[in-house]
Design goal:
The protein is mostly helical and 171 residues long. The chain has helices spanning 19-26, 28-32, 70-73, 77-109, 114-120, 122-127, 135-144, 149-156, 159-170, and strands at residues 2-4, 10-12, 34-39, 42-44, 56-60. The strands form 2 sheets. The chain has a 3-stranded antiparallel sheet. A two-stranded antiparallel ribbon has the order 1-2. A hairpin with a 5-residue loop joins strand 1 and strand 2 (10-12). The chain is rod-shaped, with a radius of gyration of 24 Å. The mean pLDDT is 91.
């Protein structure tokens, strides 16, 4: 299928392609911020199938973000891969935020400063014990729910405190 940009450029798309696929064919950022599309001067939904000779104009908005539903609309592998990559990055950022909150709260209960742990690199050193490459990976794993924050806090405790915790558990 050959479609035209507003400037008259010809873009080759696979059969069944949608305006969302077209947006990602132009540029990833255009796709990520795609809010709507005009095809032949008519506003159309994202799932409209493009035909030969269609003139497509993409409307973008800075606050627009891809969502999981877009994966069902996108037909080209380029668009689908870019959407998945964006969603992975967004999910990691969210997990970092949640993990930081959980770890910060657990550390505070033991009288340990989260910022001190991060600045000192203690969490980075501890990461390999849990099978991660960095402290941020540990925090993200806590946010994902793959790692319990209490296990991390226990490893960060001074040796004397660990002995006290072990004796309290046995009693």
């Amino acid at each position: 299928v050959f479609v035209f940009t507003p400037a008259g450029e010809v873009i080759s798309m696979r059969n069944g392609a949608t305006p969302l696929d077209f947006a990602y064919a132009i540029h990833s950022e255009v796709g990520h911020h795609c809010k709507g599309a005009w095809v032949n001067g008519v506003m159309v939904p994202f799932d409209t199938v493009l035909k030969n000779g269609d003139n497509v104009e993409i409307i973008t908005a800075a606050d627009q973000r891809p969502n999981k539903n877009w994966l069902q609309i996108a037909k080209t592998s380029r668009a689908r891969n870019r959407i998945k990559a964006f969603l992975r990055v967004e999910q990691r950022e969210q997990s970092l935020k949640v993990g930081k909150g959980l770890l910060e709260r657990a550390l505070r209960k033991k009288g340990i400063s989260f910022s001190r742990v991060m600045k000192s690199g203690e969490l980075d050193k501890l990461a390999s014990r849990f099978g991660f490459s960095s402290g941020n990976d540990v925090v993200a794993a806590i946010g994902y729910g793959r790692l319990d924050e209490s296990a991390v806090v226990f490893e960060l405790l001074p040796e004397e405190s660990k002995q006290e915790s072990r004796s309290t558990i046995r009693e």
